[in-house]
Amino acid sequence: MARKRYIKQDQGSFYGEYLYKQLVPPNHFFRKLNQIVDWERITELLIELYRGGGEYGRPPYDPAVILKMLFVSYLYNLSERQTENYINESIPAKYFVGIAIDKPAPDHSTLTYFKKRLTQKSNLAIFEEMLAEIVEMAKEQGIQFGSLQIIDSVHSIANVNTRKDDHRKKKEEEGARDPDARWGVKHQRKVKTKEGKSIKQTEYFYGYKAHVSLNSKTHMITSLIPSSGEAWDGKYLKLLVEKDLAQELPVEIVGADRGYDDHALHYYLEQEKGIHSGILLKDIRTRKKDKNKAVWFALMKTPQYQQAKKERFKIERKFGEAKQNHGLGRCRYVGLLGFGIQVFLTALVLNLKRMVKLLCGVGFKTPIFATV
Fold first, then answer.
1. By CB atoms within 10 Å of each CB, which of 139, 196, 241, 299 scores lowest?
2. Global pTM?
3. Which range has highest mean pLDDT (50-54, 79-83, 365-369)?
4. Torsion of Cα atoms, 93 then 96 then 99 then 103, to 10°
């Protein structure tokens, strides 16, 4: 079998490993991350997407090197050009990526080509495989996943000025800047008018959604599906549960908010899969005059329902972390495919941060420049 060939990074030179031992502390986040992740397993997934598979033709960069650069980009919420500069200036980051101190990082355009290569041949399938691989690594290293999965969606605003976009379309100059983005409901809330009347107020957004399943015990994202902004959340619950079960996670309870309250979804969980439904019930379930509503009262009293209700905040907290620290509040790119890349890489960053915390006790503190 031919041997894989990559562009040499010379980390093992005098200017690489020796200085890194002196300058990157043993408990540094990046050092711990390199210790707990088998990056060669990720490389094996990615190199098959390259022409020649790294065995013949012009040697490519090791895919793990480029993937780590993207990880740094999303970890610190940097543009790709900023990422190149940061890695060239940061000794711990250069160590993590695997480049000798006296060697420059790959050009930022390499990151763009890398993303195109992955999506042109596999759409988003390779990102889904990487997410599943990280979950598998966590299990192999002794991280115990719990029986409760929490499902919810998080929205991201499209990288579009909607006013200019509407003006351009009205003048029939060209189409929408982002043809895949759609208007969706951010939330509904009750507000009081000046007259003291209580009314429902709906707030909308233009963009995309990520439908996410989070393990309540580990706080790790186990599966996700990107969609346009108008999609009904309930449509994706079954798909997420099936993905979790395919990974042999010990799913016994599935929790979700009231937006998922649908007869068919309760039936799917309880009757088809033998999973306790922790989907929060709408008030109409128990307030309406219905001789069959006793079943809903019984569901609300189960310990599984109460547990799901109590722990649902964990996924909201994870979404807050993704938006505040890693830029998920706004799309980096246009198109559903671009949003998919962003949300999967964000999920990988969140999971790897959590793994370092669980296995090594080392937390990651977001520096000031990453939030500017």
1. 196
2. 0.90
3. 79-83
4. 10
d(CA 275, CA 266) in angstroms, rounded, equals: 9
Are the C-beta atoms of 165 and 153 separated by less than 8 Å? no
Tens digits of per-residue pLDDT, 161-185? 877 655 555 555 566 788 999 999 8
Q: Which of 210, 188, 211 is nearest to 200 (CA)?
A: 188
Q: How far, in Å, CA of 178 to CA of 159, rounded?
A: 8
Q: How far is CA 115 from CA 121, 123, 271, 346, in A?
A: 10, 10, 41, 14
Nearest-10 Cα torsion for 245, 342, 365, 99: 100
Amino acid at 23: L
Which of these, 193, 123, 151, 131, lies nearest to 340 by C-alpha position?
A: 123
Q: Taking the CA of residue 63 as centre, how many other CA atoms within 13 Å lie in the half-sphere pointing to its CB?
A: 22
How far, in Å, CA of 127 to CA of 129, rounded?
5
